[in-house]
Amino acid sequence: xxxxxxxxxxxxxxxxxxxxxxxxxxxxxxxxxxxxxxxxxxxxxxxxxxxxxxxxxxxxxxxxxxxxxxxxxxxxxxxxxxxxxxxxxxxxxxxxxxxxxxxxxxxxxxxxxxxxxxxxxxxxxxxxxxxxxxxxxxxxxxxxxxxxxxxxxxxxxxxxxxxxxxxxxxxxxxxxxxxxxxxxxxxxxxxxxxxxxxxxxxxxxxxxxxxxxxxxxxxxxxxxxxxxxxxxxxxxxxxxxx
Length: 242
Hints:
Layout: H1 3-14, H2 20-41, H3 48-55, H4 65-86, H5 93-103, H6 135-147, H7 155-169, H8 176-190, H9 203-216, H10 220-240
Helix pairs in contact: 1-10, 2-3, 2-4, 2-10, 4-5, 4-8, 5-8, 6-7, 7-8, 7-10, 9-10
């Protein structure tokens, strides 16, 4: 299923260590694109160029403080994920809550990093998340699956399933999508893959693939979406280091 991606990753690995300035420029570009697209999927109206200046510390007129914080928080969450990877930390529930806390910092302090204490619906989806009382137990089962059965899977499949099941549980009142995409990339980055970016234009395809996975347990559409996004990221590196 992932042979094409493995071939591209092997080509990239053969070129390591990569030129310092190339890595720096790609990282800055991915950080911006990831922040812009992940927030845009959730309804943030900052454009790509507006997101860039916000991340540089400039206020954009006509945009809400929440939208500014969503951008700066997302960048901070990426830096935290990079630290986890750099320090080779074991995946934990603590990390999940920390990522979420950063994403909602200054936006919803009451719920940042805290599992929901109420029931919710996912707008436009057929799947209904579990009762809030079941969230801690289901998150525990997700972590157990990750550390046991999940380790026998290909890393891309494991990362995709982690995202799918996390969103199915919908453990937080808000910020689940951004957190899920952080967890997806955290798992990939830990194994030497570049972070992938699900684009704003793929929003409907992304939501449909998730809902299909949640209601029919057919994960293939989501695997395909993730694979295509990962190929795009690998191609960015390969194009610049030829």
